């Protein structure tokens, strides 16, 4: 049973920083991706960042490039999203999700964690 559990969502001021954590378990594939996807109510999901199981291949969307960084701790089965210089447009529910290949649909999703950026 694959499980992904996000944590770390919070209220943060404009220009502030926040780190999200995705703890995962039960993944049996050797090669897979863990992505961060965010969604604002009434809008479609927006892909934010992704990291391969090897920890070497990472991608970050243009909207957060230079401000967000993704990493993983294999010993703890955790993927981190470090967010800085945050703006109100970063406000969303952040989900982590697993997929087998970069072009594959997502197999599993976490429950999400709320991030709110305000002045």
Task: Compile the SSE list and pairings.
Elements: E1 3-7, E2 11-13, E3 18-25, E4 33-39, E5 46-52, E6 58-60, E7 68-73, E8 78-83, E9 92-99, E10 108-109, E11 113-118
Parallel strand pairs: 2-11
Antiparallel strand pairs: 1-3, 3-8, 4-5, 4-9, 5-6, 7-8, 9-10, 9-11
General description of the model:
It is a single chain. The chain is mainly beta. Helices cover 0% and strands 51% of the residues. It has strands at 3-7, 11-13, 18-25, 33-39, 46-52, 58-60, 68-73, 78-83, 92-99, 108-109, 113-118. Strands 2, 4, 5, 6, 9, 10 and 11 form a 7-stranded mixed β-sheet that branches. A 4-stranded antiparallel β-sheet has the order 1-3-8-7, with no helix packed on it. A hairpin with a 6-residue loop joins strand 4 (33-39) and strand 5 (46-52). It is globular and about 45 Å long. The model has no long low-confidence stretch (mean pLDDT 96).
- Specify the helix fraction band: under 10%
Residue-averaged pLDDT: 96
- In whole angstroms, how far apart are the ends? 41 Å
Radius of gyration: 13 Å
Biggest β-sheet: count, sense, barrel?
7 strands, mixed
DSSP summary: helix tally? 0
Number of strands: 11
Descriptors for this entry?
single chain; 119 residues; seven-stranded mixed beta sheet
Kindly summarize this structure in a few lines.
This protein has strands spanning 3-7, 11-13, 18-25, 33-39, 46-52, 58-60, 68-73, 78-83, 92-99, 108-109, 113-118. It is mostly beta strands. A hairpin with a 4-residue loop joins strand 7 (68-73) and strand 8.
């Amino acid at each position: 049973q694959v499980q992904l559990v996000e944590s770390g969502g919070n209220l943060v001021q404009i220009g502030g920083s926040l780190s999200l954590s995705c703890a995962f378990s039960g993944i049996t594939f050797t090669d897979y991706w863990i992505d961060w996807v965010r969604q604002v109510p009434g809008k479609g999901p927006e892909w934010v960042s992704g990291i391969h199981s090897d920890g070497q291949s990472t991608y970050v969307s243009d909207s957060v490039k230079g401000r967000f960084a993704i990493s993983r701790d294999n010993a703890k089965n955790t993927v981190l999203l470090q967010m800085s210089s945050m703006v109100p447009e970063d406000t969303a529910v952040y989900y982590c999700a697993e997929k087998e290949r970069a072009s594959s649909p997502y197999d599993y999703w976490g429950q999400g964690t709320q991030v709110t950026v305000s002045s």
